[in-house]
Design goal:
The protein contains 9 helices and 8 strands. This is SAM-dependent methyltransferase.
């Protein structure tokens, strides 16, 4: 095997940091995993601790008992530290974006690994990952806060990015645009006037403000009402498993990627 592709991350991690993404993966892609005879999932760049990879394994086993999970890290010391926690169906390996596993994975989770790259590099790594998954496979790539209360992730398949999901803990933000700092690398520098993602966050903030009278009933009711208002002008996904009240109640909102895809402002249109 050649040298792993990528750069070492800070490695910050912690218990339940990725619970929101794991919950979404299990609900949205559980059927995909169950459709395979030997479903393989890769947790790319799990960090200085095996914790979030183990949590992903345990959560996915509840919806797909035969699933196998491989945690991949580019730092040999981190892999060595995780090895004692291996068990049947869970293993750890040295590698990077080239995905050095025995067979193409059906799903790749990659969180907090592209923040250190430029936008063009991030698109290139997306392309590499898309080429490494099994036919019909998916990639969930995003960023979350240190304790996981704010997260945004893109859902990709072999054709490119398909969805963008916002997820937040109620009480963990003042207005929806606070999640802008967690946008994927492909969008975070596009949050400027003239770009779709900027217009979306502006409109989300407006819907949140208009629904302030619902605050006495709790942030959950205010969020649901704001999302319904937003859906009048934006193609918010409303049908399960990606959308609808059941997901909105969890502090989630999913859009088709095409609705917020980068325009020509600030660089080449690569979507």
């Amino acid at each position: 095997m050649g040298r792993p592709i990528g750069a070492i991350t800070r490695g910050t991690t912690g218990h339940n940091r990725l619970r929101r993404a794991d919950r979404w993966i299990a609900a949205v892609h559980g059927r995909l995993l169950r459709s395979a005879d030997r479903p393989l999932v890769v947790d790319l760049g799990y960090g200085a601790s095996h914790t979030t990879t183990l949590e992903l394994f345990l959560r996915l086993r509840r919806v797909c008992p035969p699933v196998e999970v491989v945690g991949i890290e580019i730092d040999p010391a981190r892999v060595a530290a995780a090895k004692p926690y291996e068990r049947p169906g869970l293993s750890f390996a040295l590698g990077g974006f080239e995905l050095p596993v025995s067979r193409p994975p059906l799903l790749v989770r990659a969180f907090n690994v592209l923040r250190q790259y430029g936008e063009a590099e991030a698109w290139d790594h997306w392309t590499m990952l898309r080429g490494g998954v099994a036919p019909g496979g998916v990639i969930v790539e995003g960023t979350c806060s240190e304790v996981g209360h704010r997260a945004v992730w893109a859902g990709l398949d072999g054709s490119g990015p398909r969805t963008l999901t916002f997820s937040t803990r109620f009480g963990g933000f003042e207005r929806p645009s606070d999640l802008a700092e967690r946008l994927p690398k492909a969008l975070i520098h596009r949050n400027v006037p003239g770009e779709p993602i900027h217009a979306f966050l502006r409109d989300f903030d407006h819907a949140w403000a208009v629904n302030a009278p619902l605050s006495p009933y709790g942030s959950r009711q205010r969020w649901i009402s704001a999302v319904r208002m937003l859906s009048r002008t934006w193609p918010v996904v409303e049908r399960p498993p990606l959308g609808g009240p059941a997901r909105w109640r969890l502090g989630e909102l999913t859009l088709p990627w095409a609705a917020v895809a980068p325009g020509l402002t600030g660089g080449p249109d690569r979507h």
